[in-house]
Amino acid sequence: MDRATAILMVGLPGVGKTTRARRLERQLAALRLTPDEWMIPLFGDSEAGGKRDVLEGRLLWTALRAAERGLNVIVDFGLWGRDERSALRWLFTAVGADCRTEYLTLDPETQLARIRRRSTHTPEQTFAVSAEDLARWRHDFEEPTAEELGGALPPPPPPTHATWSAWAAARWPSLPDTWGEATG
Q1: 174 partner at 20 to 30 Å CA-CA among 5, 34, 49, 165?
Q2: Confidence (pTM)
Q3: Hey, what domains does the chain have and what are their CATH numbers?
Q4: Whole-Å CA distances, 66 to 28, 35, 172
């Protein structure tokens, strides 16, 4: 069986992650998991009272199982936090997959223009985002380090969790701590 590749799409809304993920999906014959494509049809909202974290956990469980079986996967979540990315890099490595991070960024004006264009042309596929939202999100976003982008091993998990698997199960409530017996 071939070794799978997992690609983590990282960046804020409107920078081109899903467009790039769709291209990679075709090139790599990969399973692409984009939460907005599930949240809006299922719940009519991008957050839906906390259901996004539950949905993302099940999508990650699916991605990890697919990667275990040799299928390339693309996790198109945005992954704003370094711990999220570290946990997923560790988990995909634990299931025997290669993992790489694709980071996309864009200047705020172009980003906002893209979001507004998307809202006008395909309102059923997007959610409202204001300039204030983007400014707040930019402040909250943790840019990937050179080590992350270069494929270095993730750091140890935060002291509150014994393994990255345990951390991920706490972050995404529907993702089981199946890989917890391995060391973080």
Answers
A1: 5
A2: 0.91
A3: 5-170 (3.40.50.300)
A4: 14, 17, 18
